[in-house]
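[SOLVED] Need 3D model of a two-part complex

Original post:
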Amino acid sequence: MQDKLREHIEKVILLSDEEFAFISAHFTVKKFKKHQFIIQKGDAVKYSYFVVSGLLKLVHTDDSGKEHIISFAMEDWWESDYYAFYTQTEATLSLECLEDTEVLGLTFENYRKLCDGLQKMERFFLEKSNFGFLGAQRRILSLITSNAKERYEQLLKRYPSLFQRVPKSLIAAYLGVSRETLSRFSR
Amino acid sequence: MQDKLREHIEKVILLSDEEFAFISAHFTVKKFKKHQFIIQKGDAVKYSYFVVSGLLKLVHTDDSGKEHIISFAMEDWWESDYYAFYTQTEATLSLECLEDTEVLGLTFENYRKLCDGLQKMERFFLEKSNFGFLGAQRRILSLITSNAKERYEQLLKRYPSLFQRVPKSLIAAYLGVSRETLSRFSR
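Solution:
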């Protein structure tokens, strides 16, 4: 599991064995079963999660109980309720496993310790954050310029493996269309 | 102008006079007139801009020539075509002044020099990037869970001053509704 983390970080910064040992000691291995909640609305959000294997959905549930999927996260992605994580407040979102999932969890305190202890890690998190922002901006652009069918095609092109792993009903919830509308797109 | 930058950065990290002098030397003052383009689609994107005074719109123009407003930026905001800035590629967006505008421009090279030369600045940019990501995620959530009237009310509540400064036609373009629909909301 630690190998995957090292490989992931080294796409951005190169590390000595000593540096990686320092980094690795700040993470906690956690394993969850399919359908298990990693974060539930109202929880304290203790960790930011690096996904080693498995698949997650980050969900906002509205007042009427309807689920809106903000994002999916799979191998090599980071996920959490980041507003709650950064501000150390209660979760307003939930994070649920769509498959058996292994993650490496980083507490907010350890996130700060990594940044303070090794400037390279601050660079790493800055790069991840900048590209996370660009991904979110791309999604905003897609939501304001494209119709549901175009968004479906963009998603299929960008993340073909999602369509093998995620039930169609959840793809529909992510795109904001009904299950029936989605069926028409995928014929 | 530099005072505003110092005040802005010191909301995140405290600086000595020497540190601020070092930082300040990496920025270039630029002044633009209302309606002037700071970035045009196809340009090399040389700078990230800190807005000292004025108001900007970041725009995606689709194949049919229709303008979609990704964001407005006013005093104390940073703006650029960040995909093009971080990857040092050509602009796909345009950035235009809605008022006479003064900015402090930071080249990509100087952004790197600031991060390398003063770890505090890497911390500052990491904080800005994290909160930029959260702002983008909030907008995604608003786009997938709220109708146009609700988005209008959220915008009015969060940025009341926008409604004094921005023509109604642009508020409509930001919300993705027609000018007529917007008039119905604001009655």
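Edit: Chain A has a mean pLDDT of 94.
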